[in-house]
Amino acid sequence: MSQPPAPPILLASTSPQRRAILTQLGIPFEVVPPRYDEADPPEADALAVVQEHAQGKARSVVAGDGERPVLGIDTAVVLGGHIYGKPADATEAEGMLEALSGQTHAVISGLCLVTPGWEHVDADTTFVTVRKLTPRDLGTYVASGEWAERAGAYAIQGRGAGLVERIEGDYLNVVGLPAALLVRILADRFPGVYGFG
Fold this sequence. Notes:
Layout: E1 9-11, H1 16-25, E2 29-31, H2 46-62, E3 70-79, E4 82-84, H3 90-100, E5 104-114, E6 119-130, H4 135-144, E7 164-168, H5 171-175, H6 179-189
Parallel strand pairs: 1-2, 1-3
Antiparallel strand pairs: 3-4, 3-5, 5-6, 6-7
Helix pairs in contact: 3-4
């Protein structure tokens, strides 16, 4: 007897990177833009912030549906206790990259999965070491414009890969979705439904 199709997860995000990762994993989903305003105080507890934002995004969508699982994700780039969000302009992007140059920073993602019966909030961390960047490296990357709408002002799945020396942990977490964590949760909570567990 064949398994019924898995119900699509409602993705409370408009991020193309998150859509691409769910597609890569073969997880059916539908995008529902979250109705949630997030603010990242630069010196806040990053773990608490990303979990709170992920939960807020997921809950803002669950109110409109209530039947299918809802996935909320939030990611922060953290160095020395400082949260590096999305730069407002090229000058801020260059400043962020200068700060990350030659350093190892943390990429912390909060994840919240909500169903009618339960809510699971979790997080995962990947460590990224950026090579020592020259003024030419900084100028070339900032001129590419790839830093726009990127926490920490770089995209590891694009030209930003050339800025990175080493990563420790889940690569896809740096791209924008803690895939290994999500797979573990789906395997545990929905064994076999989404192809895991």
